[in-house]
Amino acid sequence: MDAYALHLAMAALVGASVVAVSAYYMHRKTLSQLLDFARAVERDRDRGRGTAPGDEDDGLGRAALRHGQYGYRRKGPGYYRRGGGSASLPDVMTAVEVDEEDEAMAEEDVAMLKRPSPLMNGAFFTGAAAAEEEKRGLPIPAGLPRLQTVPEGNKKYVQTITDKIAGHANRAISPKSPVASASASAFESQEGSDEDDNMANDAKLDDAYLHTNGHLGENGKSLFQDLPDHIAGNGDPKSLTASSMIRSHSVSGDLHGVPPDPVAADILRKEPEQETFVRLKITPNEIPSPDEVEVYKIIQKCLELRERYVFREEVAPWEKEVITDPSTPKPNPNPFAYMLEQKTDHAFHMVDGVVHVYASKDSKDRLFPVADATTFFTDLHYILRVIALGNTRTLCHQRLDLLEQKFNLHLMLNADREFLAQKSAPHRDLYNVRKVDTHVHHSACMNQKHLLRFIKSKLRKEPDEVVIFRDGTYMTLKEVFESLDLTGYDLNVDLLDVHADKSTFHRFDKFNLKYNPCGQSRLREIFLKQDNLIQGRFLAELTKQVFSDLTASKYQMAEYRISIYGRKQSEWDQLASWIVNNELYSENVVWLIQIPRLYNVYKEMGIVTSFQNLLDNIFLPLFEVTVDPDSHPQLHVFLKQVVGLDLVDDESKPERRPTKHMPTPEQWTNVFNPAFSYYAYYCYANLYTLNKLRESKGMTTIKFRPHSGEAGDIDHLAATFLCANNIAHGINLRKSPVLQYLYYLSQIGLAMSPLSNNSLFLDYHRNPFPVFFRRGLNVSLSTDDPLQIHLTKEPLVEEYSIAASVWKLSSCDLCEIARNSVYQSGFSHALKSHWIGKNYYKRGPDGNDIHKTNVPHIRVEFREMIWRDEMQLVYLGKPIVPEEVDK
Ligand SMILES: [Zn+2]
Fold this sequence. Notes:
Largest sheet: 5 strands, parallel
CATH superfamily of the domain at 304-442 and 556-874: Metal-dependent hydrolases
Number of helices: 41
Number of strands: 14
Strand content: 5-15%
Distance between the termini: 76 Å
Helix content: 40-55%
Mean pLDDT: 77
Shape: globular
Bound molecules: zinc ion
């Protein structure tokens, strides 16, 4: 019988047109107002003035207004009265309930007017149901709020027996239920008003509400009508019959008692700090064998060698600048303002390829000494010997394997907890955690479609601009395109042909040629160079567009690498003035300088006579401006935004391994290009000295962050292990377990670009990124060359997206990678504090702020714990582990 009524009600509902229902609603509204009025009069008579409910006091107009809104509710109590009421429902209870609601409502009549939807639904149901029920003379539920008055014992009952039903019901009337809110405006008005005022009632509901996983779909309707069975019998649980239980369960499609998932609200109420964590207590082989002890001692020595070389600031940024203001750091209003800074008496000159600095011209004491070339190459050879030792390789391989397995086990035990912790971090998700593109070349920072659009628009708007001097004549943009037999209409991305394709695999030379739009070096010169006839105006405009895209994305940052070739000393001033004059500045961007390793090319062209020339051109201006900022004011201003120095070129070219005693740069006059490690040492040594000098003068420093291990010999990675702060690529670490283990222990940052590797040196599915990540190497994802590689407007997100899909990285993994990228980047202490938490410089979970990074403490603690265990082992129980991250 019940089921039949239910079906009828549903049929009535579905069948009735909107017009019919609203007509009915209007009718009911009037009717209920009348009824209510009658009821009020009746109640007055019954109880006398002393017990008059609150709503009468408000005056009729407002009461009528509310009744119009809450017609169906009013109908409830009225109905009871009319039908004689239920024996189990004393009148007092209803009256009290009405009063409570009225008080709550009185506060925001206007808001009420705007929130028809959830109640409207109810009105429809009860309206239609009322018609049906009226025929049968059965009581109709007075709407769901009455559930709130269920006594404690009964509430429990409702909760345990009718989990889902109660859940549906409560959610249906809950003002926050998204299903119930038909329109955004209704939703908004609810957020503002209802929730606070009805909090007391909601609080009572919590238990039942939170233990449900019900979704209010089509079933919601029938569940509304199931309610009478439980609610009408408020005081009498027995009224819930077996048949109605089965029916209601079958409605929600769950007969098997699957434990409900926690609902979102439940998760949100949980403090992320209370994350629980299944800790791994696996320490196989705690006591190393004598052979292993030998290996660990060797590894210790390697780590100590690195510590001796790599540049770190004396005073950490977080000691220099304590951030007390938690708000967003104010953007620099005038990043190009030059403040006159005092010249110091420092004297400097090159000695065997390395700048020596003295306190004054007359001083003989060298300041800031750095290891000489012979020492460096000796140590490099030591590392190279170590990484070739059989027993070292075996042990490192085993350790790395174990690290990977530990991570897998951690995921198996804790992945759900991590996900729960992420859910409980309000507001933050993968999209609004900060990600830094740690490795991207400026000349390829726009995507191909962007470049194409830009070229077309220039051809349309500035066809008569004289843009190039070629073959003895000045040419306008239009003439250039005529000389190429091209029109703006012809141009498309395919013709532009800047994208890497299968012809570039293992062909760095061909990849480089892709920088030429339409295969034409003249187009590259016009659009992608800053030292051309139009003084790089087009490239500056393009760059600004890229900057504004970044600013719009808000959570994406980039470190653009821009070239200094070392052909002449004036390059620095030229670059700086290009940046300053075009006001190329964004809060989302810092710069790195990349030095192409092209000595042999310049030598052949007769631009330089020795390697020393190259070093002079690169480093002397930097020392000049540091000693006397007034000598190159623009460069001085620009250097404040330069955070790193890079070495770039095709690593796969064959080269000779340097010996311990190499010719000095002055002696290097042959036409051959020096080896990677030769470049690396001289760049490192001069940069180290420069940084020491800059630091002593309170200036910003520049980290050594070269390309290394993209291809070629393993020496590159050995050299950068000794002297680089972090590196780009590093995929060749997969070939050397010892170096990989050393990079892990030192936590050297790897800015990896699997999509770029896929175009050049290594198929995507063979990329070691996921393995490195699992083992706990400090990896980030970067784009390298969006112009040649990426297809979308957000290349960094594209990189994350493909990695996530192919390697099945979880949201937690991606957020951890994003967090790594901020650590690896050269952005200021203030920005890092703002982006990833004010204690970011502390190691382990203390330094993590899940509200900013969306990385669960569980994950950070796991990484820290495993790393400490490993250090413990390597240092044979006596590790020196700092409390703070590397400066
Ligand atoms: Zn690169």
